[in-house]
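Hi R.,

As promised on Friday, here is the backbone we talked about, encoded as structure tokens. Could you run it through your design pipeline when you get a chance and send me back a sequence?
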């Protein structure tokens, strides 16, 4: 009787412990919707942390009533616990919701319950095999430590984001947008369920002496056949899943047979998709960055580096699971990139990770303060700082982008960013990269030029700014950096920051269902062309949220019959635009002018464009406005009523603000735009020839482009300053593309003296550096 009471007390304590543990766990993560609401990521983290715990709890079950009895009792505990945590996540989902792709109860249960059950069965097996508690715990610890070390090692050697296993988490992609609940994902977890019960029934056949009533209903032989059948079906389902989730490393090695190598760098790619010349061009790009990084970091290792070159993002995802990122594996000295553009947007950044790792003291090859503790912000900040030429966006340098983010209130907390890895993942990822790179640049710029390389390697080795500077000096550095971020920036930079960044990353960002409901109601209003209904659907939004939503909607492809409705909607919401900020108003006015053009109301289109403060526009926006004004003035001044001009305006009005449509469509050449006014001394003629030169450049007919540019460049003062500055850059670029480096370098230097942004200046000197490298290193 006393033993029974002790067993009941232990069971009660076990129940209390697990429910208390789950409650504490939820309390700690409740503010992170990505992992605290129903979805794949929440399921994965639950399995990772509580799978071994549920297995451990079964070890304390001392009732010697057979394996089936233990399974029933522990299964009840697992089920109740799972229902409890699911309810907590469900309730939390009413206040915040993960922005991941795989949200909902079904993805959550399929991700977590099968592996939790397998962990439970494993614990029951250990408790059945060993009577002494010490042995149970020892072999439990030995198994899990060994299993996770082996799992980590195999994942590391595989060089992929995909991690498929039955006992713990399942990862099929990078986590920037969360994991998708795909057919392959479901099939793999079905395999986990089949394997779990196959394994359980197999154990029952081995420990048949512990059977209760179950033994009377079937034979040991049939049970063994059933277990083998379930395990076989699990293997079939697993193979089906792997086939649908992507290709493995063996396939990568077998299919990427085109290899070009020089100076310990190898480009490996698929000869069916990438030409030899393209692979050689990428190798040349890698050698350029090796040369640049050697000048900044110092002597580099002679160990070989492999660059897996995928033609497209789809190919990269197929072989590695990397959907949204390019990536480097410092431990393997491997890089995976996609795209064949030169300059490549990220190759230098990824090579920086490899070469920085040569001075790192962590097991991962990532700078960090401890052997097992990486510093993600420092790692990415170093790669950004060492490849500043790759980080220019919209004419803004990396530092200007950081200033814009800071002044827009979108900067992550600087102290937590560099002291806690969690701080990096809580922030908008792109913002964290930019701020980290700018801060590292700021720190290195404070060092004497002769000591900069030494300071850089010391920072990598220490793995922490705090360790290098000390707590007080680190805080002083941050204060000085904040003062630096207060410096003046181009007016459009603030809008660029607000338009492209958020204050939260995917870990903390919440995507409430009410937003989806609003979109559905707005879609209905759009379909019925009902302006009042559209406005009503946005009633719960703030002014800026309304303008943000409308702006996003107006950027989508539209049909001609939708223009009157959208224009009426814009007129009805004029107050919304005027009460947000001037930058958002400028972009909306451009869109409004495009709509007027589509409705053949060219006077109103031009009047609308004249309301815009051009000083607030980014270079690409300003270019769009200048192009539109030129079209409109031609039509209005010369009373041209040609269908060709109407079609041209339609193309212009439908083009995205960020696309240079004359680079995308040869229609303008075919229709002979401005054919009546093409004399170079005429302003409209100059503009027409500028457009023609751009089109010839985009079609890689550089000789024709250059002849047009040389013809009109003496008249550059007749053009607006942004177009004139661009004309000088176009001349330098065409000379470079024609291989006439001796002429291109002075042309770039001449272009740098015109009124250009800091970001464009960086790109100009990047081009000059590339030509000097090619002239001196490549034969």
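Update: got your reply. Pasting your designed sequence below so it's all in one thread:
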């Amino acid at each position: 009787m006393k033993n029974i009471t002790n067993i009941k007390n232990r069971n009660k304590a076990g129940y209390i412990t697990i429910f208390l543990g789950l409650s504490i766990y939820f309390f700690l993560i409740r503010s992170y919707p990505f992992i605290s609401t129903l979805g794949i990521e929440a399921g994965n983290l639950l399995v990772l942390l509580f799978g071994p715990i549920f297995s451990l709890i079964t070890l304390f079950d001392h009732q010697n009533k057979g394996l089936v009895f233990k399974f029933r009792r522990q299964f009840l505990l697992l089920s109740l616990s799972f229902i409890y945590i699911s309810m907590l996540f469900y309730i939390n989902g009413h206040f915040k919701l993960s922005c991941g792709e795989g949200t909902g109860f079904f993805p959550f249960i399929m991700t977590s319950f099968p592996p939790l059950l397998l962990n439970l069965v494993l614990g029951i097996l250990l408790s059945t095999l060993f009577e002494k508690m010490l042995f149970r715990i020892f072999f439990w610890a030995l198994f899990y430590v060994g299993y996770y070390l082996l799992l980590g090692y195999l994942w590391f050697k595989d060089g992929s984001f995909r991690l498929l296993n039955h006992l713990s988490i399942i990862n099929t992609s990078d986590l920037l947008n969360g994991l998708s609940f795909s057919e392959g994902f479901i099939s793999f977890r079905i395999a986990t369920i089949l394997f779990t019960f196959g394994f359980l029934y197999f154990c029952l056949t081995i420990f048949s002496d512990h059977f209760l009533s179950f033994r009377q209903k079937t034979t040991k032989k049939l049970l063994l056949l059933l277990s083998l059948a379930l395990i076989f079906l699990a293997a079939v389902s697993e193979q089906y899943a792997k086939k649908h989730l992507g290709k493995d490393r063996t396939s990568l090695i077998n299919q990427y047979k085109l290899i070009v190598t020089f100076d310990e760098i190898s480009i490996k790619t698929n000869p069916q998709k990438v030409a030899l010349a393209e692979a050689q061009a990428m190798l040349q790009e890698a050698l350029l960055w090796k040369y640049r990084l050697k000048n900044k970091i110092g002597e580099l290792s002679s160990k070989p580096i492999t660059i897996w070159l995928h033609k497209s993002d789809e190919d990269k995802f197929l072989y590695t699971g990397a959907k949204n990122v390019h990536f480097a594996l410092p431990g393997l000295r491997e890089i995976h990139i996609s795209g064949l553009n030169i300059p490549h947007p990220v190759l230098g950044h990824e090579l920086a990770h490899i070469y920085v790792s040569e001075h790192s003291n962590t097991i991962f090859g990532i700078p960090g303060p401890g052997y097992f503790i990486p510093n993600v912000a420092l790692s990415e900040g170093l790669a950004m700082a060492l490849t500043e030429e790759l980080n220019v966006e919209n004419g803004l340098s990396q530092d200007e982008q950081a200033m814009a983010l800071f002044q827009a209130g979108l900067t992550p907390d600087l102290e937590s960013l560099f002291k806690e890895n969690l701080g990096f993942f809580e922030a908008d990822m792109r913002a964290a990269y930019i701020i980290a790179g700018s801060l590292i640049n700021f720190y290195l710029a404070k060092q004497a030029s002769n000591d900069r390389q030494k300071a850089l390697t010391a920072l990598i080795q220490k793995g922490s700014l705090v360790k290098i500077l000390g707590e007080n000096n680190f805080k002083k550095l941050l204060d000085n950096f904040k003062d630096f971020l207060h410096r003046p920036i181009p007016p459009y930079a603030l809008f660029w920051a607000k338009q492209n960044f958020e204050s939260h990353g995917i870990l903390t960002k919440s995507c409430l269902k009410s937003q989806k409901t609003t979109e559905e109601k707005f879609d209905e209003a759009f379909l019925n062309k009902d302006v009042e209904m559209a406005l009503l659907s946005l009633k719960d939004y703030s002014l800026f949220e309304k303008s943000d939503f409308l702006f996003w909607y107006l950027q989508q492809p539209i049909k001609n019959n939708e223009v009157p409705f959208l224009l009426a909607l814009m007129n009805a919401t004029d107050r919304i635009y005027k009460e947000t900020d001037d930058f958002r108003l400028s972009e909306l006015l451009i869109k409004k002018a495009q709509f007027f053009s589509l409705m053949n109301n060219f006077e109103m289109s031009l009047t609308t464009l004249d309301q815009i403060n051009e000083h607030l526009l980014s270079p690409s926006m300003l270019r769009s406005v200048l192009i539109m004004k030129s079209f409109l003035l031609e039509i209005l001044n010369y009373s041209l009523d040609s269908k060709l001009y109407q079609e041209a305006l339609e193309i212009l009005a439908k083009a995205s603000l960020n696309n240079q449509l004359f680079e995308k469509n040869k229609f303008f050449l075919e229709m002979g735009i401005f054919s009546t006014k093409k004399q170079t001394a005429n302003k409209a003629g100059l503009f027409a020839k500028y457009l023609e030169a751009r089109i010839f450049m985009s079609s890689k007919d550089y000789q024709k482009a250059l002849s047009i540019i040389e013809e009109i460049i003496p008249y550059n003062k007749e053009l607006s300053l942004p177009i004139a500055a661009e004309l000088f850059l176009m001349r330098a670029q065409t000379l470079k593309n024609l291989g006439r480096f001796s002429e291109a370098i002075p042309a770039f230097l001449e272009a740098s003296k015109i009124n250009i942004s800091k970001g464009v200046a960086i790109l100009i000197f990047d081009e000059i550096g590339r030509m000097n490298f090619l002239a001196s290193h490549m034969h």
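One thing I noticed while checking it: The longest strand covers residues 305-310.

Thanks again,
M.
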